Amino acid sequence: MFDLIKKINDFKISRRSFIGWTSAIAATTAIPVGRGLIAKAETNIGTEAAGGEGIWKTAACWHNCGSRCLNKVLVKDGVVIRQKTDDTHEDSPDFPQQRGCLRGRSQRHQVFNADRLKYPMKRKHWEPGGGNKELRGKDEWVRISWDEALDHIASETKRIKNKYGNESIYVSSDDSDDIRTVMATQGGYTTSDGTISWGAWLYTYDMLGVGEGLYVNGINDRLDLRNSQLIVLWGANPAWSTMGSVTYNYLQAKKAGARFITIDPLYTDSASVFDADWVPIRPGTDDALALGIMYTLLDEDNPVTNPLVKWDFLNKYTIGFDKDHMPEGADPKDNFKDYLLGTYDGQPKTPEWASEICGIEPSKIRSLAREIGGTERVALLTGWAPARINHGEGWVQAFSTLGMMTGHMGSSGNMTGVSCWEYAGNMGPKLLKGGGSGLPSIENPVTNVINENEIWDAILNGKFLQKGEGERKVNIQFIYHNYSAHLQTRSNIPRGIEAHRKVEFVVTNAYALTTNAKYSDIVLPVATQWETEGSVKGGNREILINWSKIVEPLYESKSDQQIGKELLKKLGEDPEKYYPISEKQQYFNKLAGSTVVKENGVDYEPLCTITAKDIEEWGVEGTPQQGRIPLKEFVDKGIYQVPRKKGDNFSFIAYKDFIDNPEANPVSSESGKFEIYCKALNEASKTAFTEIPPIPKYVPKAEGYESTFEDWNTKKKGKYPFQVFNPHYLRRSHSTFDNVPQLREAWPNPVFISGKDAKELGIKDGDTVLMSNEHGKALRPAKVVETIMPGTIGLPHGAWVDIDEKTGVDKAGADNMLVGYIPTGLGTSGYNTARCNVEKWNGEPLEEDVNWEQRIIKFK
Ligand SMILES: Nc1nc2c(c(=O)[nH]1)N[C@H]1C(S)=C(S)[C@@H](COP(=O)(O)OP(=O)(O)OC[C@H]3O[C@@H](n4cnc5c(=O)[nH]c(N)nc54)[C@H](O)[C@@H]3O)O[C@H]1N2
Ligand SMILES: Nc1nc2c(c(=O)[nH]1)N[C@H]1C(S)=C(S)[C@@H](COP(=O)(O)OP(=O)(O)OC[C@H]3O[C@@H](n4cnc5c(=O)[nH]c(N)nc54)[C@H](O)[C@@H]3O)O[C@H]1N2
Ligand code: SF4
Ligand SMILES: [Mo]
Hints:
Elements: H1 4-15, H2 21-28, H3 41-44, E1 55-58, E2 71-76, E3 79-85, H4 107-111, E4 121-123, E5 141-143, H5 146-164, E6 169-171, H6 178-185, E7 191-193, H7 201-208, H8 222-225, E8 230-234, H9 238-241, H10 246-255, E9 259-263, H11 269-273, E10 277-279, H12 286-300, H13 311-317, E11 318-319, H14 336-341, H15 351-358, H16 362-374, E12 378-382, H17 393-405, E13 415-418, E14 432-433, E15 449-451, H18 455-461, E16 463-466, E17 470-473, E18 478-482, H19 486-489, H20 493-500, E19 505-510, H21 515-518, E20 522-525, E21 534-538, E22 543-548, H22 560-570, H23 575-578, H24 583-592, E23 595-597, E24 604-606, E25 608-609, H25 612-618, E26 629-630, H26 631-637, E27 639-641, H27 656-660, E28 674-675, H28 679-686, E29 709-711, E30 716-717, E31 722-725, H29 741-746, E32 751-754, H30 755-761, E33 768-772, E34 777-785, E35 792-794, E36 809-810, E37 834-840
Parallel strand pairs: 6-18, 7-15, 8-9, 8-12, 9-10, 11-28, 12-13, 18-19, 19-20, 25-26, 31-35, 32-34, 34-36
Antiparallel strand pairs: 1-2, 2-3, 4-5, 4-20, 14-23, 16-17, 21-22, 22-27, 23-24, 29-30, 31-37, 32-35, 33-34, 33-37
């Protein structure tokens, strides 16, 4: 038996390297594998490759990128010299490899980027109380010690809290709780919450009774997808926004015979790969299209000769479709069928009516209705994008109702729901679950939760709407950003900057000079996940990934947790009280607590077999346990994936229990049925931002298509004639990775505009264009294409804003320069409802951003 700790120490000292413990073990037990590092996957993982060429380790790919893949790095003498992805088993359709994308494979260029923040620093003209606050974003930086930085943060925390109360501290962190923990120990902090990802789905799905459904368990699993004859991707582009094996899964459905339709303002790479019939649509008008389709279904339905509407389904599983199936207390006239027919409002929702709004020919709307209603097994799959709009709730209602009307729910090959993010095309209970860290959680005594649409306004105007309650006053004087990019990713950057220049103190923990950091007073350099102990993370339902440390924290950076602990000390707290266990113990706990589904598809067992020797070698507390695979195997491989095959016990049909027995297995709505008429939704909206009708009714969207006209009746265009939408973009994960030069080179960042519009505006491919509205101005080179809906521009999500202080123009083309600030409905983020003017820029033409100077701090 060898002494692990000693080995690690000796190893580090002898090699002067950063390599962590697993490599150390591997190095001492190396098995040469013949020539080539890409020899047999299973044999070279975690082992030193032939000829001392290095050690392959699993490295974190931890961002909110829409997927989760295996990311391996080759470490030699403490240096990462190469990356690769999943080759732990042969690739096959049923058991696909979890292959990384261009971003993950460039992770080392992010971790070792020249722009990494090296030291704590403060703004030159900062002083307690703020100093010259207008200089935020343009001041010089001064290097300071950790001691000084933490002293300033601790004393300002105390001063601001004593003067203005804990509510005046706003913490924007999303994922990491360390700064939240610190501030919770000090009496609490204001936070924010919203529907940023999900759009209108988040606050509505449970009320509508599309249950957990249309969220994580709302569609069938990927093997069942192969039973669909028609797959409609409605505002979903997995080839860009869910990397990994999802596109491959869809291809299996295609091979099995499915036809594809995409309904999207862009002809996407997914449409191209699946050879889909592309139906171009205006952003934010999908509910109008769905209503036009449903009108046609009703109009053309004949139970005998042309059964398009599934009446049995509607009658048995839903409420509110017609006057005979209304909930108690509701006015029978408010039923959905009469709304479609225009019985009381005089406006039948015909394809002609819909066409004027959504821009799709009436004949096409009719043919969509016939295809969707007339095909036996259909997957109606939507991304979150069409719901990430102002007044988005009506879309969720209309889309769900279409699935109900056509009965494409709850049986093999039939599904209606969200297909997005890590769950794209493959839902059902997770087959693996990661364990918890074992850290205690600390409650936040402050109850303020600001809607994400209102944060900057709340700071500037001193009030916000507390959900379910009403207006609250707030006086925010301290913004602490940790593990989020709020100033980039929330609506209206110019207003955000104004808010940042108003408060007394702004701090950001970051690993590069992100936009949050740029507009701060003090910036603390944070270690990336390659520099921390390790963790376990799920992805699609069939995998669990773990990674361990690749290098020690670079320069003077510290892990999030280390920063939290040191700040606690400066605030006079005992960090051991809140962090009683080491980061290594936390990693071990996550591994030990991980479970995997048993063959029966119901029960779970521990994933890792852990021996007393393992525990001793790790130097942690624990109890030996019997699991599926040895701990070392999971750590060395970095992944466990449950093999799938047709007929196994892991398949999933969404809502099947409810469909089989609705009384015994009601859905989550008040009535226990799918609610086409939803009283709860209407009621909830009365204390929120704008009222939502109980049935799917068309509502013009704030800053939507109608607002591009000065006069809707004469169709005279207004000041802002173009609709803007923000596809999630391949070169980055939101704002993350946008600073990686290799990715900038591989994947340029233009604005997409149609050939028709470009011609009318005299814009040629590559010309710099100015996009402007009352919220902001931004530049981008134009990419003139025939694959976008005329009248719309596709401005990719997440570019690092770069504003010229004199003109206010952002040369990076950040999406949130143009997105307004209009909370609607229950507080839905309206990113895909924006509009602007587009014109040829008559200033200096833009250079490709790969040639721009990086944000590297040079201290004087
Ligand atoms: N206009 C518009 N806006 C949008 C969207 C849109 O489509 N259009 N999409 C929305 C969606 S879906 C989402 S989910 C949000 C995403 O919004 P954010 O979560 O704010 O976006 P990210 O860019 O992922 O920000 C993550 C930040 O955390 C930092 N970070 C990463 N790892 C660590 C770490 O270990 N420690 C610390 N301290 N920091 C770390 C990264 O550097 C980055 O700055 O954006 C939303 N905003
Ligand atoms: N490469 C990359 N992938 C990502 C992310 C990323 O930043 N980069 N972010 C991840 C995260 S956190 C999330 S939440 C998901 C988001 O996933 P989605 O919301 O599905 O992704 P989007 O790219 O915003 O939009 C999908 C498609 O909808 C189209 N679309 C936009 N607006 C509308 C509309 O109003 N109607 C219709 N019919 N179509 C519309 C877009 O053109 C695009 O092709 O993506 C994840 N995946
Ligand atoms: S999809 Fe996400 S997890 Fe997979 S390699 Fe790309 S960035 Fe990493
Ligand atoms: Mo998201």
